Amino acid sequence: MNRLAAFAICHFAVGLIAASPAVAAEPAKYAIAIHGGAGGWADLTPEARKGIEQALEKSLTVGRDILAKGGSSLDAVEQSVRVLEDSPYFNAGHGVTYTATGQHQLDASIMNGADHTAGAVAGVSTVKNPISLARRVMTDTKHVLLAGDGAEKFAREVGAEIVSPDYFWTDRTRAEYEKAKAKAEAEARDGEAKPKTSQLAAPDHYGTVGCVALDTHGNLAAATSTGGLAMKKYGRIGDSPIIGAGTYADNKTCAISGTGVGELFIRNAVCYDVAARMRYADVSLADAAIVQVRDRLPKDTAGLIAVDHAGDLVAEFNTAAMPRGMADSSGRFEVAIEPEKSGDASNAR
Question: What total number of domains does the chain contain?
Fold first, then answer.
């Protein structure tokens, strides 16, 4: 073959390659899940049910849209939780529950799975959106957790939105408080024993809110916010602001937000344990969540949402219900309150 022929063949081949259609890159995945607290959620009025579902849809839409535009998982979980904090239907932010003395003490935490940075606040009483203050702890200080007066002072230093304590009262929570107070006073007169931790699941629902997300950059994040246990005493702090107990995120495994009896979540390091089972026992996210919620924790005490590094979503709970929502880059978008109609108190994965 002479040089001219060889050149012609090569030129023709290059032309074919150039004319071939480019192979489209697979779109980057994103996924997000939210929850509004495990519990009974019994006897919901049509108005309350509609309000809960609308709040879930709004929260999920806000987070999903951030992710769909290439935004960060941290932005998605913070903004989604803020929506739930602003709703009167959950035990976080505006609808927060009460302490034994009729006050409000709010807790929240957020964690970045990319580098394990985290921020949390506990026992704040005038901060409208504790989850955003928790993020400022993460980004603006060298600390992880600020509590009480120190957290309140920090909130004012960074310009967090401050509200009157009356903001946190709703007609529902005020009525619940008066009923609970009367019951506590009657029990005190009758000399009844103090409840054990295992009996702290008395309220119909916990109402803690949370969000987990995977962004298109492959980063995971988790956030949780709560008013804590109804009628709590002595500055009690539950699991929600405790990294590893109520919130955890690790890019190598998953992001988790928990809800339920805080003392149990702290003792069992529930959220970290889910990630640890994935990393060290090489089990799936679904199986790790099932072990925690169904096998390790007592019935009617727990729920969690999680997403792994592949974008798989999980919602598990051993209570009668758990308001929740899931969305991802495949077009999935769903919210629910009760379990799926499978006879099981857990939800789809």
Answer: 1
